[in-house]
Amino acid sequence: MHTNLEIEYKTLVTQDQFKRLRDRFSVGKASKQINTYFDTPDRQLLAVKVACRIRITEHAIEATVKRKTVEGVLEYNVTLDQFDPTVFRTEAFQALFLSLGIHEDLIEVGQTETYRTIVHEPLGQLCFDENHYNGKTDYELEYETIGDPSAGYARFMEILAMENIPYVPSISKMQRATA
């Protein structure tokens, strides 16, 4: 298992804002992600601000648990050979869940299909996400910072200003897909 501290800023936008801003950047073809989310039947992980998913992309399958911290989101990741929710019963993940007081097995609670285009910049990655879940579609811009979070935030605000898009922090895809 490897860990990563993720510091990102994200906001939901309209389809028109999404398209206009994408047109300003040299973006390639979107890649498809299937995110399957897990929690206990009574949503104990959500209550302690933890997200749990398995993501399938063209190139990889990864199990991730995300835990909010003061600095950002601490991610715990394991690469898989196939979609296998029993990965969350392994010793490493179980130790994490037990430290949070979670003793129940996890169940699937939702899924999103995301089409993501990434623009790599010196201060971070700008992600254009078109998300489909529960018969809905939404559009989200994410900026995952590299290095100084305040510089990454300033760059994200600069990008949004290009199309006069207000910054309204959005809730996670998991929360939207499982609401």
CATH domain class = Mainly Beta
Shape: globular
Q: How many E strands?
A: 9
Low-confidence stretches: none
Strand order of the largest sheet: 1-6-5-4-3-7-8-9-2
Head-to-tail CA distance between termini: 29 Å
Helix content: 10-25%
In CATH, the architecture is Beta Barrel
For the sheet with most strands, the description reads: 9 strands, antiparallel
pLDDT averaged residue by residue: 95
Q: How many structural domains are formed by the residues?
A: 1
Structural class designation: alpha+beta
Rg over C-alpha atoms, rounded to the nearest angstrom:
17 Å
- CATH-level-4 superfamily name: Hypothetical Protein Pfu-838710-001
User: How would you spell out the order of helices and strands?
Assistant: EEHEHEEEHEEEHH
By CATH, the topology is Hypothetical Protein Pfu-838710-001
The proportion of strand residues reads: 35-45%
Q: Specify the number of helices.
A: 5
How is the secondary structure organized here?
Elements: E1 2-6, E2 8-13, H1 15-24, E3 31-39, H2 44-47, E4 50-56, E5 61-68, E6 73-80, H3 91-99, E7 107-121, E8 124-133, E9 136-145, H4 149-161, H5 173-177
Antiparallel strand pairs: 1-6, 2-9, 3-4, 3-7, 4-5, 5-6, 7-8, 8-9
Task: Report on this structure.
The protein contains five helices and nine strands. It has helices at residues 15-24, 44-47, 91-99, 149-161, 173-177, and strands at residues 2-6, 8-13, 31-39, 50-56, 61-68, 73-80, 107-121, 124-133, 136-145. The mean pLDDT is 95. The protein has a single domain (2-177), classed as Hypothetical Protein Pfu-838710-001. It has a nine-stranded antiparallel β-sheet. With 179 residues, it is α+β, with helices and mostly antiparallel strands.
